[in-house]
Amino acid sequence: MSLLKPFSKLPGLNTANILLVENEEQFQQKLADTVVLQEKTVNVNVRLARSLPLPMENEESRPRIDLVVFIIHLTSELSFQSAETSLKYLDPGYFQGKVCFLVTSARNVSVPPERLVSVRTLAASLHCPLLCAEDQTTEGVTTAARRLLAILKVAAGLVPMATGLYLSTLTRCTVPSDIDQQNFE
Amino acid sequence: MFKIHFRFFSVMEERSSIVKTPLNNVLAQRRSNSYRRSMRSCVEATNLGYTSGHLTALRIPRSRRTPKSRDITKQVDPDQVALLVTKEWELSYVTPLYQFRHTQLKSYSKHLSAFIVSEKQQGLAIEVGQELGFKVNFSVVLGLAETDEDAETVFIQILSRQAFAAKDDAQKVVWSGWLTCVNGDLEYLRSLPSEFVSLPLLCTRGPESLTVLVKSWFEKTFDCCFGPLGINSANLQWLAALWIGCHPNINIQYLKLVWTLPTLPPMDVKYTIHPQDAWELWHSVRQDDTTDVSIEEVTRFIKGLQSHFFRHFRIELSAGSLMQVSTALGSSHHSGKIKIASPTYITTILQLLTECALLKMPI
Fold it and tell me: Distance from A116 to chain B by nearest Cα, in Å?
């Protein structure tokens, strides 16, 4: 099985590589352009994919991927299912702070709330952060890009004294249970 | 089947019973009530859902009891049942009504008819009780409420004389609507202050202008808010499973599902299934005929239909959204339109819709 491995290649100098995985291939292009424009000090390479596993032909030329972002559109069930199946092709080393879930249309009225709950349970079980993004406006895309860049720089080792594993213990997703309810007051 | 049990191992101090809380503390009371009760009733398989204002936590059940076919005419007057079925209703949610009395329906009728006439003829003073062009009928439909906490259903009809009608012609119904609460969330209903009556589901049928007038009258008189209620795809799937489950008793004649796919231009897929095939698929998904239907069974059933479609047409229906489900027993649309053709399972459908309405409310 062609797993994507986090540490099998050498890192580049002052470089960070991010992989955006999205089944619909709509949001990743906008997000990629914004990410590259936002970051001035570090070389950011954005790779786009529809799903994992990645094609074998590029295996040699592909750089080391520091952060894998799964973009899930809550309006379609297929988006979530494709992300779930792609997860199998990631080496377990990625789940220590190098995977992130990005969810769009979480506030949409027509989305059944159960779908967001299942994405949250998935993210919580893998100890990964879950970001909600607004993909229709430029401010939303810029905000999402900035947040991804913050996580990417830590995952690529460009932030001193912080590693992906350390950050993931702070940013990981939690699923609200009945016990959390009492903390509301 | 998997049933998720919430069990609490941490020791929580029992709060002393809250005798009477001042009105501005009512929100806190609601939440503490729900976690106290959740300790006792935690064996129910539920998800925690939040109303759209994130102020109340309600339970969204992950499994529902299989509905028993019941002759509703034993509980409800058959004429009144006939008013509710075979018509297409548009759904809205209603926040709790302040000081709504079921005993004052006659005075409400007079006030509402005066209001409608005065709005239609701006500038003329209208006396309440006059012979007016519009006549409003408020009536109570007894028997639909399931628990003691549910308020009785209120049915509203607006009658009007047709233009150019002879003097003695009967007035025709131009608009009808009904407010109902069937098996509403018990914790929520009990936590409401006593002056409020909760009838969260409003079904209307008729010209939009009259609907707007009725809603504004209610808003002015009872200090409530209205809003559109849609039926999301999970609830449409529940309804499909409900109607399929009835097939051995009542022939549903067809199961039609309509999906909208986000292609350019958007594509609508109407998928009609022979009832016997759908029933066999449903029966094979329902491994044991227990009393509960769980959401996993419903999702598996729909996934089975989707994968069959994919095998033949190479179109993945889960990439789109489910818009409409219809059978001979009724039809429901994503935008909030429902038609109940047969009164047998009306309480189960209304219970599901009441739950949707309670979740959609901003309180």
Answer: 11
Residues of A in contact with B8 (CB under 8 A): 178-179
Helices A164-171 and A138-155: crossing angle in degrees, nearest 10, is: 130
Q: Is 0.90 topped by the overall pTM?
A: no
Q: For residues B256 and B184, which has the higher predicted lDDT (pLDDT)? A: B256
Q: What is the pLDDT of residue A141?
A: 93
Backbone Cα Rg of chain B: 23
Query: How far apart are the C-alpha atoms of A134 and B94, rounded to whole Å?
Result: 29
Could you tell me the CA-to-CA distances from B16 to A38, B32, B38, B186 in Å, in that order?
55, 11, 16, 21
Return the SS3 of B268.
strand
Q: What angle do CA A111, A105, A52 make, to 5 degrees?
A: 100
| Cα–Cα distance measured from residue A16 to residue A63, given in angstroms and rounded to the nearest whole number | 9
Q: How far, in whole angstroms, is CA B327 from its chain's centroid?
A: 18
Contact B89, B337 (CB under 8 A): yes
Pairing verdict, β B292-294 and B196-197: unpaired
Query: Regarding beta strands A43-49 and B330-333, do their DSSP bridges make them parallel or antiparallel, or are they unpaired?
Result: unpaired
| Separation of alpha carbons B54 and B96, rounded Å | 16
Segment A15-41 shows an average pLDDT of 91
Does the structure's ipTM exceed the value 0.85?
Answer: no
For residue B92, the cross-strand partners are B202, B228
Distance CA B155, CA B230 (A): 21
As a whole number of angstroms, the distance between CA B340 and CA B360 comes to 22
- How far is Cα B242 from Cα A44, in angstroms, rounded to an integer? 52
Alpha-carbon distance A184 to nearest alpha carbon in chain B (angstroms)? 8
Q: Which one of A108, A120, A178 would you mutate to disrupt binding with B, by most B Cβ within 10 Å of its Cβ?
A: A178
Contacts of A24 in chain B (CB under 8 A): 319
Q: Strand, coil or helix: what is A22? A: strand
Four-residue CA torsion sign, B81, B201, B197, B41: positive
- Whether the CB-CB separation of A158 and A14 falls below 8 Å is answered with yes
In the numeric block, the tokens 């609507």 are attached to B177
**pLDDT tens digits, residue range A2-22?**
788 888 888 888 999 999 999
The answer to whether the Cβ–Cβ distance between B42 and A178 falls below 8 Å is: yes
State whether B6 and A177 contact (CB < 8 Å).
yes
Q: How far is CA A16 from CA A50, A148, B83, B174, in A?
A: 20, 12, 66, 67
Smallest CA–CA distance from B303 into chain A, residue: A77
Going by pLDDT thresholds of 50, 70 and 90, the confidence category of residue B53 is low
Chain A residues with beta carbon closer than 8 angstroms to that of B38: 178, 181
Distant-in-sequence, close-in-space partners of B153: CB < 8 Å, separation ≥ 6: B140, B141, B142, B144, B145, B178, B179, B180, B181, B199
**Residues near B173 by beta carbon (within 8 Å), at least 6 away in sequence:** B157, B158, B159
